[in-house]
Amino acid sequence: MSFVKETVDKLLKGYDIRLRPDFGGAPVAVGMSIDVASIDMVSEVNMDYTLTMYFQQYWRDKRLAYIGIPLNLTLDNRVADQLWVPDTYFLNDKKSFVHGVTVKNRMIRLHPDGTVLYGLRITTTAACMMDLRRYPLDEQNCTLEIESYGYTTDDIEFYWKGGESAVTGVTRIELPQFSIVDYKLVSRNVVFSTGKHAPQQCVVHTRNIPNA
């Protein structure tokens, strides 16, 4: 136990949270995966939907590599405040929160090679622009669009970890008014005045259930 404590103390000592991993070098590859716990509401009036999910991000930070312990280290969630983490946000978000009962629902796990797993339990209400001209026989595509707020593709490259299997739980969701037809994962390139970004999308295709 004392050796583990010494290892963690050593990793955190002198760690500069202000700099991304490999600062000045290749962009950080940040993998993402989502397990959808529930889709709580789809509102045609407000043009949005609400979902609760387990959102995981993975990246490698060589500053956090360690030897002598052949185990992954799952640390107290408050350690996340002492480490660099991606400034990930949802472009079409209206409001979101990280669950906090009984403690803030986030996880930090370190691997010996410096790989970091950062997990959050989040509920988000996201905009979904719907075409209701065929109501009540309409079909909608609702997206969750994810990217870095401040970093461009020179610093961070997001990708879906595991490809199409990066998102789970969608097919088991049951909604009173909609049926979920399918979903797909999409990568885009967008240029803002601040530089190039590459948002990642999860697009859920729904169909209205008449007389629901």
Automatic annotation (TrEMBL):
It is found in: Postsynaptic cell membrane. One of its GO terms (molecular function) is chloride channel activity. Keywords: Cell membrane, Chloride, Chloride channel, Disulfide bond, Glycoprotein, Ion channel, Ion transport, Ligand-gated ion channel, Membrane, Postsynaptic cell membrane, Receptor, Signal, Synapse, Transmembrane, Transmembrane helix, Transport. The keyword Transit peptide does not apply. The keyword Ion transport applies. Residues 6-186 form the Neurotransmitter-gated ion-channel ligand-binding domain. It is a multi-pass membrane protein. GO terms for cellular component: chloride channel complex; postsynaptic membrane. Signal peptide: none annotated. GO terms for biological process: cell communication; signaling. Belongs to the ligand-gated ion channel (TC 1.A.9) family. This is Gamma-aminobutyric acid receptor subunit beta-3.
